[in-house]
């Protein structure tokens, strides 16, 4: 039950936003009472932290799988994760939680910060290694470029909601092409 609650909360955060859903939105589809959700997650922040930690586990699992690939292919796999979210009508978790950030509890903010830092560090390392191995080409510091890549991926999911999924595909294709040339 706990995994189902976290999975549904993840979907609701990505579609509606953290502050826009209630435990009733989780309890009803699972055919349980709100108390059952509260049993596993006494506060909504506890649930939010579980969602963020689940996302971090998936990210770490994926990046371990991609480790042996050339750097441009590692980035392509990251882009594919975002693409799947796009085609499912979701935004990325960090992009969904950012607008609510100031309303979240300090422990939840801390987990979001950890997630953001881990993603930026990974993209930075991939970019640095890719430039060293002549698989990726860009000007400036890899950390700065990583922020540009991540912000482009996040914003392209938002644009795709308004302009259609092709928007994400066009942006991500151009972004990767620019890094490869």
From TrEMBL:
InterPro entries attached here? Homeodomain-like_sf, HTH_TetR, Tet_transcr_reg_TetR-rel_C_sf
What are the alphabetically sorted keywords of the record? DNA-binding, Transcription, Transcription regulation
Start and end residues of each HTH tetR-type domain: 1-59
DNA-binding span(s): 22-41
Record flagged with keyword Transcription: yes
UniProt GO MF annotations: DNA binding
The answer to keyword DNA-binding applying to this record is yes
Q: Return the Pfam families for the record.
A: TetR_N (PF00440)
What is the designated name of this protein? TetR/AcrR family transcriptional regulator
Q: Which organism is it from?
A: Chitinophaga fulva
């Amino acid at each position: 039950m706990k995994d189902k609650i976290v999975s549904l909360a993840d979907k609701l955060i990505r579609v509606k936003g953290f502050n826009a859903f209630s435990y009733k939105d989780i309890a009803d589809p699972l055919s349980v009472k709100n108390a059952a959700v509260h049993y596993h997650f006494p506060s909504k922040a506890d649930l939010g932290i579980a969602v963020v930690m689940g996302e971090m586990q998936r990210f770490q699992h994926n990046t371990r799988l991609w480790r042996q690939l050339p750097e441009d292919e590692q980035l392509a796999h990251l882009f594919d994760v975002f693409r799947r979210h796009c085609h499912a009508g979701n935004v990325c978790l960090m992009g969904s939680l950012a607008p609510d950030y100031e309303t979240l509890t300090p422990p939840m903010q801390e987990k979001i910060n950890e997630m953001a830092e881990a993603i930026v560090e990974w993209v930075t390392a991939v970019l640095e290694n890719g430039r060293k191995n002549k698989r990726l080409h860009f000007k400036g510091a890899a950390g700065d470029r990583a922020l540009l890549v991540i912000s482009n991926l996040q914003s392209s999911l938002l644009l795709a909601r308004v302009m259609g999924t092709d928007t994400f595909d066009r942006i991500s294709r151009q972004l990767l092409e620019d890094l490869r040339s």
